[in-house]
Prior knowledge:
Layout: H1 3-27, H2 52-70, H3 76-81, H4 88-113, H5 119-130, H6 135-141, H7 151-184, H8 205-219, E1 223-224, E2 230-232, H9 233-236, E3 274-276, H10 281-290, E4 295-304, E5 316-326, H11 331-346, E6 351-359, E7 362-371, E8 383-391, H12 393-398, E9 407-414, H13 415-423, H14 436-439
Parallel strand pairs: 1-4
Antiparallel strand pairs: 2-3, 4-5, 5-9, 6-7, 7-8, 8-9
Amino acid sequence: MSDEQERWKALIRHLFAQSERNRAAAKHPDSGIHNDGIDISKLKYPQSMPSPDTLEGQLKSVLRQIGEQEGLGDPLPSVLSALKPGSQLHTLIENYLQTHPMEDLISQAEAELASVQKRSEWEATKSRFLGPNGHLRTLMKGLQHATPDQRPALGQRINAIKSAIEALFSEKWQAIERDALQRQLPDLVDITLRPRPSANGSLHPITQLRDRVNAIFYRMGYSIAEGTEIETEWFCFDALNTPPHHPARNEQDTFYLPQSRQVGNVSRRDKERYILRSQTSTVQIRTMLSEKPPFRIVSPGRVFRRDTPDATHSANFHQYEGLHVDRHVSFADMKHTLFFLLQELFGQSVQMRLRPSFFPFTEPSFEVDIQSPSVGKLSHQWVEILGCGLVDPEVFRAVDYDPEEWNGFAFALGLERIAMFLYGVDDIRHFYRNDQRFLMQFA
């Protein structure tokens, strides 16, 4: 090859070297690298693979520019003959023209994302690069112009570029989300200021007491059983050996629902009326119908009675009942269970006594009184605390238990009454008024 052609080839190599310097200067303006000379990276095709004819035209264009600027002759045909496909110089130019425009797509995406501040701008920019008609899609369509042996390498490069661009968009999205969250946060506060009073809530005192009693019975092997607040006459009265003429069944004592009212999730034995339960003993009946003895359960819950509200009465309150069914359950078992409960609530110095009483569902029946120094102004006085007794055989027969085989005991207490003794509250209505001045004393 002549000296003129060697000069052409040397200038073309110089051209690529200068192009790399220009790219470095663009990325690092403060590096001291000068950006001048002809830049072959400016000869990129519009985000697609060039056809062989297009590539040859671009090569001729750049060579003519070099010849004009450097005052060289025009041995273009002879130089092009040295650029036959497969030659070292041809491969150098071809690879550059095929790879650098694709890699520039990353720089272009990075430059556009730098000015994006909103989610809508991010979506529009992403559509231009990664959307169905975006730059990357156009680039992939251009693979059809590459030769079969070039396609695998170019495909891998396109996938790498796609991953890089997706990472840029993901990072930018996280930055936008952080900025949006930061704008929603309040202004910085002076940590040297005295803190404001805590606005955290707390459990209601009745809930606290219920959880405390639950924990006591858990330790004695009892499980929790719950039921609906709407019940039927059979479960609330008939199954508990309460005769039709009993005063508790009068509408002046019990809340009855209208005759036409239907309740889908509460089963009935016949066509008895629905009521608001006046005791959680209904849970005991349903448990005995659904389970086989032996068992121990407690059933806390809200009950309703037609009482005129005053300092010691309320139309609704919280009852806590228990039932233990097994073989050979004795009066001593009941007394020991209740005494342990009262000691856990009122302390080791509490005294307990049982007074004979009457309940339709237990026989014998007792009222339990206590004397304790921890019940405020009632200390050292005997006060009634709960009712109890051995389960009446008629109750067992109502649920198809054989009273000759099974026996047990039941008890019931009002959580509000216990809370009033423990906390020194003199009016039951305080528990329902939602007065924060009262409730914060138990926080």
